[in-house]
Amino acid sequence: MKQDIVLKVNGIQYNLNVETHRTLVEVLRDTLGLTGTKKSCNEGECGACTVLMDGKPVASCQVLVVAAQGKEITTIEGLAQGEKLHPVQEAFVKHTAIQCGFCTPGMVMVAKAFLDENPKPTSTEVRRAIAGNLCRCTGYQQIVDAIMAAAETMRGT
């Protein structure tokens, strides 16, 4: 069964006719071509598909696209301002928090939402915040360092 929906992604409004059983990650990747959001476990366990929905991180593999109607969706592609990366993205590059890169978009999105809520975190709080995002390459220390550095940049220190 198909349904007409209006989806707002990265500030752009899309009028779509979608199958009601499709997930947000499927529509983002396959219909809108926003492949920065990764599709991995399809069970909401790995965090690779994390996007922001009304500023809160969600596993887009667990959200039916029809449930995203009327919400503000932000993907990794929506963080940068033109050529200027978001401070979290810049910090991930600077602190080599990117290895294979598969977990990176979801990790960045969680970090961004976390720092919006907690601009002055401890490293323990950062580790708790990213606990739902799996990374097999970095050992997490570079990721924690990047998020701590991004917090400083975002605070202007």
List the helices and strands and how they pair.
Layout: E1 2-9, E2 12-19, H1 24-31, E3 50-53, E4 56-59, E5 72-74, H2 87-94, H3 104-117, H4 123-129, H5 141-155
Parallel strand pairs: 1-5
Antiparallel strand pairs: 1-2, 3-4, 3-5
Task: Describe what you observe in this structure.
The protein is α+β, with helices and mostly antiparallel strands. The protein has 2 domains: 2-76, Ubiquitin-like (UB roll), CATH 3.10.20; 87-155, DNA polymerase, domain 1. 33% of the residues lie in helices and 17% in strands. The protein contains 5 helices and 5 strands. It has helices at 24-31, 87-94, 104-117, 123-129, 141-155, and strands at 2-9, 12-19, 50-53, 56-59, 72-74. It has a 5-stranded mixed β-sheet with strand order 2-1-5-3-4, with helices on one face. Strand 1 (2-9) and strand 2 form a beta hairpin. Helix 2 (87-94) packs across helix 5 (141-155). The longest helix has 15 residues, at 141-155. The radius of gyration is 15 Å and the shape is globular. It starts with a strand and ends with a helix. The model has no long low-confidence stretch (mean pLDDT 96).
